[in-house]
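Query protein
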Amino acid sequence: MLYQRILTALILIPLVVAGVLWLPTWQFALVLAVVVVAGGWEWSQLAGLDSGGARVTLLGALTVWLGLLWMQMSGPLVPGYLLLVTVFWFASGTWLWRVQSIPSAQGPSLRQAFVGLLVLGAAWSALVALHRLPGSGPALVLFSLVLVWVADTAAFFAGRRWGRSKLAPLVSPGKTWAGVWGAVAGAMACGLVLAVWHSAEGLAIAASVLLCVATALVSIVGDLYESYLKRQRGLKDSGHLLPGHGGILDRIDSLIAAAPIFATGLLWLERVG
């Protein structure tokens, strides 16, 4: 299993970096759409859509939604949409860590299907909106990926070293409050890097650090939310597409939640100078 995880990572990481940095935005958006639609297929299972027709319908709706978002990328729809989904993730974080029981879900859930449509579309549009920024857009997309990775890695090692108090034992037994603080520390370091990169001064430095910390915290919520849905359905992994890593959603659940808030905050910071 460890060998498969390492091999898969060694193959995927260079491809992701090359795609982010070298593809023009429309090609990046197309490749990312394929990944998001594959994630949508797995989400349809988490939503209890067992029939092929229902799952294909969700994928069709997701594809159409991505197309509409692409056409509105320069308009007011995308910023408002990203803000709405950011609020959803913060609201989810207020109850996930306090879960006392996880009832088994039976049958299809149109609500969860709609949530999947909403959050997957938001993650896609957030990364595309960043990528199309003049000059540093692709680098900012790569930075957002590194930020989530650093927060996740710091949480893992801090949890192993100091983890005692569980964060949400019924949802994700391995996560601890020490891991949360580790993620915060890693995000603060990333925030300082972002501030230096943008030659920030004064309050802009604090804003960069705060944005990265908020992004890291929401990335944890994304991980918890997917874990909650899997436990409702009695699933260990969202899929089996990536050897040793499970499904697509198992790899990007944190990013799905993190991308909208990072893009929203960064676009706002860019706007105010």
